[in-house]
Amino acid sequence: MSVFRKLQGLLGRYESEIWIRVVGSALSTITGLMVRPFLVLYLYDQLDGSVLLPMIVVGLSPLCGMVVSWFGGGISDRLGRKPVMIASLLVQMLCMIGYALS
User: Fold this and answer.
1) Domain boundaries, given as residue ranges, for the chain
2) Whole-angstrom Cα distance, residue 15 to residue 20?
């Protein structure tokens, strides 16, 4: 069996919504990993050598993600997956805009 047939079998196994979520999560994670090191260096320079505050600013995003994910399942059970996913993407967009403006 060729690699392309295996790939087609994998892609066809899941609905397109799943792949949209996978690609969106991958892009979001990659962009976050690209922005955070430069944000730490920039904040370090702007705060005249303070190390703690840039680390807190950059570390709050994953920490908030962990805390919110504990409650996300219950919220999505009550409200539905689609509204919760749209709301989370909007909040994430606002956070990225905040990163850019900071």
Assistant:
1) 15-101
2) 9
